[in-house]
């Protein structure tokens, strides 16, 4: 048995036996608070650590769960087992609205909006008569668990920690799934994820809602643990503290949430005892210490405490369980010679600059077309117009007879057009296999619930099988379990091609695939491209390496200053004085 599994079992056993030991009640209370906090921090692992979205407003969602159950159980006699669901629904609605409004906007809108949300809920709760204003509500019932009232800290402990452990495993399962890969892809910007067919907005909203729901469950438990609620634990300060726990523990790691919650709770307790003694007066001095610790952590240990623990553990090795998985369905491919891509007088203006000036060209099934030109000629912009990254100012782009200009990248990807990037875009902390499996996102359909409950395994095995098949197709099977971030530039670019192939495209768009490659790697790339063409794939290739372009392309479109200079076979282009002049920068 490996050390990871052993450590996990030891941890779970320790959790299970703690209340049975003759430890002081105070320990149990501490452990309960750690569990309550860990549940909120767990949501932040998904939201901030994995999806890269910062929220200071989680305490407000805790308050929502707590106050819903407090009010309904005291004023209307609802059972906590009913109020938990009502709290979750109310929280989901608020989280959806908040996410809907703020997540479309980039930059600092979300953190700012969550600060506003944290502040406003606190003052709202404190001003509603029915909720007891700042005094809050008293006399909440204890949770009744199959006839047993969970009144003592020890009995409450089990319900709480079972929920925390289940939520941790559900989060781990989610991260190791189709949706989890999409969520990780969102962090580095939306372009790559969208090109792989991920609806990045929906994915972010999903993360926000899940984090809010975890917080609401924590609030529900908190309310019935304390048996009283008031607004102060749900204010902005606490929201910042939750974020601190997640960052300190290791914001990208599920177990970091528990570690962070544990450290903060114990530290807080100790500091509250010692600091007033040291300072000679009472006050919230621990907040100052937390601030300093946070700055130090962000400076010296960005990945938090868990990263250190992780460093001691052996690397996770994925079990190969997909060899007999059902193959994914494939789209019917266009017959050789059929018009695949038709670019008609496409134009892009950036203010006064015409980056692409009424350019037209076509790509037929089974051919490799090169798009070349000096720096700044407009190749990448043309590429982005075709793939939906940029909207065209005018002109038309059709793919297999249907207009695709104006469509989102992910909708274009769905039609069978897949791409790589000039600067490799990948998830460095995932393995090569997982990165490539992201390319097959649109070929799967299982969502969050299936992933959390591990009901997505059959589909997941098929996706991984396909990823392995594509890696083998381009000769990269030896890198399957390597962390993508450890790869040299050549294999990284090949990995991007495998990822694009995983989408089962009819047309592959490669943006400077040979950039940064060594001679041998370029030769390998030439072989890969030829092989793909022989398998009937069409390829549009933007490339600066003339040697490679001349070796693999059937036709070449030359651009200069945003316009199409000429189009022809490699030998025609090589013989053209105009092309030579364009590259040498002389008049023609
Ligand atoms: N978002 C943008 N805003 C303003 N100008 C832009 C933008 N993107 C590109 N341009 C300009 O459009 C022109 C074409 O750029 P583009 O990147 O398409 O050229 P390229 O042929 O791909 O060049 P390279 O080979 O260096 O990648 C350049 O003058 C560039 O500065």
UniProtKB/TrEMBL annotation:
Superkingdom of the source species: Bacteria
One protein family per Pfam: BPD_transp_2
Record domain ABC transporter: where: 341-586
GO molecular function: ATP binding
GTP-binding keyword on record: no
Compartments in which it is found: Cell membrane
Primary residence: membrane
Membrane topology of this protein: Multi-pass membrane protein
Coiled-coil positions: 450-477
Residue ranges of the TM segments: 32-53, 60-78, 84-102, 109-125, 156-175, 205-223, 243-264, 285-301
Protein keywords: ATP-binding, Cell membrane, Coiled coil, Membrane, Nucleotide-binding, Transmembrane, Transmembrane helix, Transport
Protein name: Branched-chain amino acid ABC transporter ATP-binding protein/permease
Originating species: Piscinibacter gummiphilus
Organism placement in taxonomy: Bacteria, Pseudomonadati, Pseudomonadota, Betaproteobacteria, Burkholderiales
């Amino acid at each position: 048995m490996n050390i990871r599994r052993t450590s996990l079992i030891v941890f779970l056993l320790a959790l299970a036996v703690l209340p049975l030991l003759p430890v002081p009640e105070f320990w149990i209370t501490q452990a309960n608070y750690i569990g309550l906090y860990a549940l909120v921090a767990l949501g932040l692992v998904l939201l901030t650590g994995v999806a890269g979205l910062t929220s200071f407003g989680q305490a407000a969602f805790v308050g929502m769960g707590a106050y819903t159950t407090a009010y309904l159980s005291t004023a209307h006699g609802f059972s906590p087992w009913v109020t938990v669901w009502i709290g979750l629904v109310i929280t989901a609605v608020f989280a959806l609205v908040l996410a809907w409004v703020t997540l479309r906007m980039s930059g600092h809108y979300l953190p700012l909006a969550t600060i506003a949300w944290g502040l406003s809920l606190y003052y709202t709760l404190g001003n509603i008569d029915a909720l007891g204003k700042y005094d809050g509500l008293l006399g909440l019932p204890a949770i009744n668990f199959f006839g047993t009232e969970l009144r003592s800290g020890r009995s409450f402990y089990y319900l709480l920690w079972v929920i925390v452990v289940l939520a941790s495993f559900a989060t781990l399962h989610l991260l190791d799934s189709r949706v989890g890969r999409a969520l990780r892809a969102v962090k580095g910007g939306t372009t790559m994820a969208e090109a792989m067919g991920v609806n990045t907005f929906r994915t972010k909203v999903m993360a926000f809602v899940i984090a809010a729901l975890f917080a609401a469950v924590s609030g529900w438990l908190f309310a019935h643990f304390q048996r009283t609620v008031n607004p102060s634990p749900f204010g902005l300060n606490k929201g910042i503290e939750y974020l601190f726990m997640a960052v300190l523990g290791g914001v990208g790691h599920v177990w970091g949430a528990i570690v962070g919650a544990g450290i903060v709770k114990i530290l807080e307790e100790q500091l509250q005892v010692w600091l007033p003694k040291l300072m000679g007066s009472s006050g919230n001095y621990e907040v100052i210490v937390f601030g300093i610790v946070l700055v130090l952590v962000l400076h010296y240990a960005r990945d938090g405490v868990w990263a250190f623990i992780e460093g001691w553990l052996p690397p996770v090795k994925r079990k190969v369980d997909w060899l007999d998985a059902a193959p994914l369905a494939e789209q019917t491919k266009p017959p050789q010679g059929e018009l695949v891509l038709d670019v008609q007088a496409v134009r892009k203006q950036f203010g006064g600059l015409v980056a692409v000036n009424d350019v037209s060209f076509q790509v037929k099934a089974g051919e490799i077309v090169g798009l070349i030109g000096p720096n700044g000629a407009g190749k990448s912009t043309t590429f982005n117009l075709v793939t939906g990254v940029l909207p065209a100012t005018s002109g038309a782009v059709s793919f297999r007879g249907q207009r695709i200009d104006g469509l989102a990248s992910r909708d274009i990807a769905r039609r069978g057009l897949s791409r790589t990037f000039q600067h490799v875009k990948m998830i460095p902390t995932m393995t090569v296999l997982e990165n490539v499996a992201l390319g097959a996102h649109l070929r799967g359909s299982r969502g969050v619930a299936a992933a959390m409950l591990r009901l997505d395994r059959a589909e997941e095995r098929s996706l991984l099988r396909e990823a392995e098949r594509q890696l083998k197709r381009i000769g990269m099977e030896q890198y399957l379990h390597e962390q993508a971030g450890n790869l040299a530039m050549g294999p990284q670019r090949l990995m991007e091609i495998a990822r694009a192939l995983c989408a089962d495209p009819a047309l592959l768009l490669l943006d400077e695939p040979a950039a940064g490659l060594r001679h041998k790697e370029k030769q390998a790339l030439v072989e890969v491209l030829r092989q793909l063409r022989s398998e009937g794939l069409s390829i549009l290739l933007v490339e600066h390496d003339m040697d490679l372009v001349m070796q693999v392309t059937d036709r070449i479109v030359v651009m200069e200053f945003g316009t199409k200079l000429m189009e022809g076979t490699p030998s025609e282009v090589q013989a053209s004085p105009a092309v030579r002049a364009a590259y040498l920068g002389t008049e023609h």
